[in-house]
UniProtKB/TrEMBL annotation:
It comes from Clostridium estertheticum. Residues 5-276 form the NmrA-like domain. This is SDR family oxidoreductase. Pfam families: NmrA (PF05368). The lineage of its organism: Bacteria, Bacillati, Bacillota, Clostridia, Eubacteriales.
Length: 289
């Protein structure tokens, strides 16, 4: 079997490669990346690395040849149209390269009424796969837990959690847990061909999240949200990104980011790591660096 992972040097991609190398032989693994230099550490382990940009269909076809299972991770490009174009190129290339199974790893913001500015790209992905000639598995993951530990010093300084999510709840999952589930699906044909939503075992209101962060840090962090407009201006780096980020929390306020499922346990037979334990470990690890 040949497994091919795109965007393999990114934050999620590198976790998926790490999980893959625990159960897949290096010679059975291909990494499709824009910059092979960034994947040099994997080459030294015997992993094949191929150069391909999502906007270069011919490169993609060549990179995808002889692939049994392709794990596709979207880029973080904004706005929607470039990301939709990238995905379209990848689907067409996968069809032409005769990829046997396509695993899409996206975000649970594909609802028809979701105000998140990137929602159209996620909504397009499932419909495009359904209309393709590919056999596929569609994965939606909850909000990444990983950005919370490095955000703690700012929250402690502010003494408040400022997400404009109002009364909405958010579920979280770490990139490592997502990676474990993705590789389990990739290596177990019985799990393929389904739609999965990967989440933690509960969701959190912003008041509950602020309380959890206070307990971990030993500092008082209250929930005192900014307005959507203020949040967009505060985090507008790179320019234009603030509006997109703020719209994510508007989706949370609409109760669209709080889904909780048992899919992770169905796939792996295990529970996801508890959010408290994850943040506590990662935050204290950074303090000791």
């Amino acid at each position: 079997m040949i497994y091919n992972i795109t965007a393999a040097t990114g934050q999620l991609g590198s976790k998926i490669v790490e999980a893959a190398l625990k159960v897949i032989k290096p010679e059975e693994l291909i990494l499709t990346v824009r910059s092979p230099k960034r994947a040099s550490q994997y080459m030294s382990q015997g992993v094949s690395v191929k150069k391909a940009d999502y906007n270069a269909e011919i490169e993609l076809i060549e990179a995808f040849k002889n692939t049994d299972v392709l794990i596709y991770i979207p880029s973080i490009v904004v706005p929607n149209l470039p990301r939709v174009t990238e995905f379209e190129n990848a689907v067409v290339a996968a069809e032409k390269a005769k990829v046997k199974h396509f695993i899409y790893v996206g975000f649970c913001a594909d609802h028809e009424n979701n105000p998140f500015k990137m929602s159209p790209a996620f909504g397009y992905a499932h419909r495009r796969l359904a209309s393709s000639d590919l056999e596929y598995t569609y994965i939606r993951n909850a909000m990444y837990a990983d950005p919370l530990p490095p955000y703690m010093p700012e929250l402690i300084k502010r003494e408040k959690l400022i997400y404009p999510a109002e009364e909405g709840k958010i579920s979280f999952i770490s990139r490592s847990d997502i990676a474990k589930a993705v590789i389990k699906i990739a290596t177990d044909k019985k799990l393929q061909g389904n739609k999965y939503t990967l989440t933690g075992n509960r969701n959190y209101s912003m008041v509950e999240l602020a309380s959890l962060l206070s307990e971990i840090s030993g500092k008082t962090i209250k929930y005192n949200p900014m307005t959507v407009e203020e949040f967009a201006v505060t985090y507008d780096q790179p320019k234009g990104f603030g509006t997109t980020l703020a719209s994510l929390y508007v989706a949370a306020a609409y109760n669209l980011l709080g889904e909780v499922t048992n899919d992770y346990k169905t796939i792996t037979g295990e529970e996801t790591e508890d959010l408290y334990n994850f943040i506590k470990r990662e935050y204290r690890s950074k303090l000791n660096d």
